[in-house]
């Protein structure tokens, strides 16, 4: 009888511990479902207390992992966002850093960063192409970069150049200015050559002398 009473007491103690664990798991699941923006978890009422406690505990562990994974992905996306914002001089994506992001928010964030990466590549290509033309024009015009912006453009470290819309616009403006200066110089040269030819004709300069100075 003593042994039986002890066994019954142990079983009742185990049952009490399981019921407490079930109550705690239910509370934790309610909080996790709200944080993860999921429907409330419904445990199978037909199962035994032992099985129910195990199922609930397993579910808590799964949802805790989902929470950690989402928070980690959010952190990774925000790091990428900061790098892109530094390069493109744009504002960061609006999202609550303290809350657990929903799957939809993470998907929107990923698509936003994909669009920023595409924009960065387009601006980078535009910058590299314009820079190449600007350097050639400066060499042709014997122009030394005399402003901080011009020096930033022709410097070797292309990654350091801020690809903001203002900088890209200023880059195009600089390119247009140099092209206009070259066009002006070409027009002046054409006019001077025409005057030289006219003077050659008036002075009846021999062809050999013209060729040597042409």
Automatic annotation (TrEMBL):
Could you tell me the Gene Ontology terms of the biological process aspect for this record?
A: mitotic spindle midzone assembly
Q: Name one GO molecular function term.
A: microtubule binding
Q: Which InterPro entries does the annotation name?
A: MAP65_Ase1_PRC1 (IPR007145)
Which terms in the GO cellular component ontology are assigned?
cytoplasm; mitotic spindle midzone
PANTHER family tied to this protein: PROTEIN REGULATOR OF CYTOKINESIS 1, PROTEIN REGULATOR OF CYTOKINESIS 1 PRC1-RELATED
Please report the name of this protein according to its UniProt entry: PRC1 regulator
